[in-house]
């Protein structure tokens, strides 16, 4: 092929993505024009991604997965996209997010900040802008994270939504992220979340102290076949686990957490008092 640009997949994450796209296309015997019709993007964009002149979007990665039959598999273009933009900071999270969008039940615990699935756009933007200021991510990555979170939240709005059980450490509602206006809207969102028929919200109060089984983010997924997996995150790494021997202890600990935490009625009352400034 004339003027064909050869890529070194090891040179950069974008080059690896482009080389894989080209290899997948050629294995199917498709031209760039033929792939563009299947993905519903311009052939120029296909060429740009394959040669690293253009950066693939999350939507582009998902379209590639659909065309090449990779949806719901382990090694997707979507997973590669997330790894390309988030690196080891969210190791394991792209795969987890794919399962989360299809889960029958979601159980989560968070401390310090409201979990992504329950965040308002303004709350999320404050967090991403802060990460940009600290130099952890670029403005482009911040925008991509906002888009990704929107897609995650939208994926849970379906005819048969998953049951979502959320237990938040009291620090989540006490930590004034973004100031009074942003935080008040976020607290209102939590009250709205608690009112839905497929959700449950509880606060693990400071008074639980050493009785809290978790000190950091823990997500537990139950799939439609009743298989269970966990995702936990430290400051720098995430880990997806599907081994029952290590997941079941987390499930038991989560049930203990729910028993000790404030009831949903007590939780909503706490949040309303906090909004009024009457919670001690």
Task: Give a verbal description of the structure.
This protein is an alpha/beta fold. It has 2 domains: 13-85, lambda repressor-like DNA-binding domains (434 Repressor (Amino-terminal Domain)); 91-119 and 155-276, 2-Layer Sandwich (Endonuclease, Chain A). Helices cover 50% and strands 12% of the residues. The protein has 12 helices and 6 strands. It has helices spanning 13-27, 32-39, 43-50, 58-67, 77-86, 93-100, 121-133, 139-155, 170-174, 180-194, 244-260, 264-276, and strands at residues 105-110, 163-169, 199-204, 218-222, 228-233, 238-241. The protein is elongated, with a radius of gyration of 21 Å. It starts with 12 loop residues before the first helix and ends with a helix.
Poorly predicted runs of 5 or more residues: none
Order of helices and strands: HHHHHHEHHEHHEEEEHH
Q: State the shape.
A: elongated
Widest β-sheet, arrangement of strands: 3-2-1-4-5-6
């Amino acid at each position: 092929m004339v003027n064909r640009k050869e890529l070194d997949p090891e040179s950069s994450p974008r080059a690896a993505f482009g080389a894989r796209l080209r290899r997948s296309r050629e294995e199917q015997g498709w031209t760039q024009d033929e792939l563009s019709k299947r993905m519903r993007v311009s052939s120029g964009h296909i060429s740009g991604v394959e040669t690293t002149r253009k950066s693939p979007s999350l939507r582009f990665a998902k379209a590639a997965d659909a065309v090449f039959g990779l949806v719901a598999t382990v090694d997707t273009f979507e997973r590669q996209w997330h790894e390309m933009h988030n690196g080891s900071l969210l190791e394991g999270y792209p795969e987890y997010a794919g399962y989360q969008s299809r889960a029958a039940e979601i159980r989560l615990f968070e401390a310090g900040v409201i979990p992504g699935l329950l965040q308002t756009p303004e709350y999320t933007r404050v967090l991403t802008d802060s990460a940009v200021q600290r130099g952890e991510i670029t403005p482009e990555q911040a925008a991509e994270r906002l888009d990704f979170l929107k897609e995650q939240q939208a994926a849970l709005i379906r005819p048969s939504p998953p049951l979502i059980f959320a237990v938040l450490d009291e620090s989540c509602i006490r930590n004034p992220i973004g100031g009074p206006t942003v935080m008040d809207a976020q607290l209102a969102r939590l009250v709205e979340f608690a009112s839905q028929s497929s959700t449950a919200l509880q606060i693990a109060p400071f008074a639980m102290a050493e009785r809290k089984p978790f000190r950091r983010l823990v997500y537990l997924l139950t799939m439609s076949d009743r298989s269970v997996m966990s995702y936990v995150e430290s400051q720098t790494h995430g880990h997806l686990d599907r081994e029952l021997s290590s997941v079941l202890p987390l499930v038991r600990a989560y049930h203990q957490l729910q028993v000790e935490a404030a009831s949903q009625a007590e939780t909503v009352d706490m949040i309303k008092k906090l909004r009024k400034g009457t919670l001690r």
